[in-house]
Design brief:
By secondary structure, the chain is mostly helical. It has one domain. 52% of the residues lie in helices and 0% in strands. The structure holds zinc ion. Zinc ion (ZN) binds next to helix 1.
Length: 130
Amino acid sequence: MAGGVLTIKDSGYAPAMPTHTACSENGCKGQVPAALEPVHLCMLHFTLKVENDCAQMRRETVYGKTPHARQVEIIRFIADHGEMLARASTSGLHLADEMKARILNTFLTLMNLRENLDRAALRQPIGRSS
Ligand SMILES: [Zn+2]
């Protein structure tokens, strides 16, 4: 049967349809994809924010003295933001090549931070007594 793939209309609207939320970055008129609705950011400002947060966490974790609870928080941040980024970027938005490259770079940053965290944890084993 032809057109079997087009089941999107059953859900009421296409997932790529931008929300009516404005990007929370001052003066930005970028559209907020549905997947980024919880953070109220357009694709560009979301990647900038994630890059920024990751750089800060990387500095925080580089010595391997990050408390376990904080490490869990960071791991959750990486997973959540990686998922949001994946959903937003594969939801059918028309993205410029430059933006696609930026998205890939942000994934790389998230992966590297996760890897860095494991390496830091190995240097300073997490206490299991608590
Ligand atoms: Zn924006």
